[in-house]
Amino acid sequence: MGKQSAWVAIQKKRWPLLILALLSLFTAMLFFTRTSFDSCATNSTSSATSNSIVINNNRFGEEEKDKFTNVQIQSKAAPNPLDFMKSKLVLLVSHELSLSGGPLLLMELAFLLRGVGAEVVWITNQKPVELDDVVYSLEHKMLDRGVKVLSAKGQKAIDTALKADLVILNTAVAGKWLDAVLKEKVPHVLPKVLWWIHEMRGHYFKVEYVKHLPFVAGAMIDSHTTAEYWKNRTRERLGIKMPETYVVHLGNSKELMEVAEDSVSKRILREHVRESLGVRNEDLIFAIINSVSRGKGQDLFLRSFHESLQLIKEKKLQVPPIHAVIVGSDMNAQTKFETELRNFVLEKKIQDRVHFVNKTLTVAPYLASIDVLVQNSQARGECFGRITIEAMAFQLPVLGTAAGGTMEIVVNGTTGLLHPAAKEGVTPLANNIVKLATHVERRLTMGKKGYERVKERFLEPHMSHRIALVLKDVLQKAKSHST
């Protein structure tokens, strides 16, 4: 009560400063923990998909799998599951250093390993020729946290790879680094390589990227769907066999959970964002939070939204005004596609109901301000979709495509509603929008169930436990090979 009273007092006295401070804080916190925007992104009600690890040759017995899946959050005094990595030398190789999903997720792992005393070295294989503000900033943030940053080429990179206890390649494209830099030393390094794959797109299946994949210690993938896709695709298209493959679901950072569970912060952010959008507190917001691109399905979402407005009007339903918010706009990157979106809005005369927000890593204010998250990724869907579990942490129901990792997160009818991908999903999504707009209690219940599901399996300690099991196994293999 004392903490809440203090917040209220500050709000009344220093409203503008508080808003500025909050937004600055969230920017700093989420700068390293947000990985949903470019995430590569089995019905989730079945017991099979609740497992958090899949290994091709089934080395872990069912008892071990169950123990792994049902990770119990222990007290702060309990040992960190990654403590065994203390003093280990870990080389992280990323194909790029940017504000996209893969690099930020690898940075998050770097900080978790540094937190237990591991020696962590970072290499970026593809860097812009000219000085880049994003690369400069991210590198210095890593240096501040004790992560060493090396050039991708040169003897230091080779020596570090040979000395390292563990080498983690991030994304399929990072595989180009092996031959380009290590050359004849590649066979010496492969037995201690863990390949962390996030991609779902077909153009990543090139021999020059993944020809060494069968010979590494293991592959770690974010969802069962993606793991199965890689297994089948590499066999059928490239004629190679996947190594032992681990499925590790991601988890929300402690920082994001603190914001999601602070009712006062959420209320302040909700009011501020809605005011900036020109949306009243009682209106309903359905938002899609992804980098704007055709693969993320913003165009189909807008068609569904327009259709839902027509349904409400035709059936004369009594609902608050509903709005669509698209967070992730970048006219410079997707000029043609974004122009299509805006032309559609103008053509259908719904510009007072549709709001575009520029791409940002500070998604907490928007999660605090909306009522429903729409995860409309197309084709094979998201590899995992970090934004989905972040929205569930904010007690938001999710309307998602029945594809990819979303099916392993959202329990259809319980924590959200699923619809088909592609054009076939436009009308079902419109119907689902109307369902949640007209049933307040159902919307709130789904949000609560989603939050409970996050607390059960999608927190940072859960992810740490899952990754710890993988790292232990890979280290044991590397040790066995060396002896």
UniProtKB/TrEMBL annotation:
Protein name per the record: Glycosyl transferase family 1 domain-containing protein
Glycosyl transferase family domain location: 271-452
A molecular-function term among this protein's GO annotations: glycosyltransferase activity
InterPro entries: Glyco_trans_1, Glyco_trans_4_5
Swiss-Prot/TrEMBL keywords: Glycosyltransferase, Transferase
Gene3D superfamilies in the cross-refs: Glycogen Phosphorylase B (3.40.50.2000)
Matches recorded under CDD domains: GT4_PimA-like
Keyword Glycosyltransferase recorded: yes
Species annotation: Quercus lobata
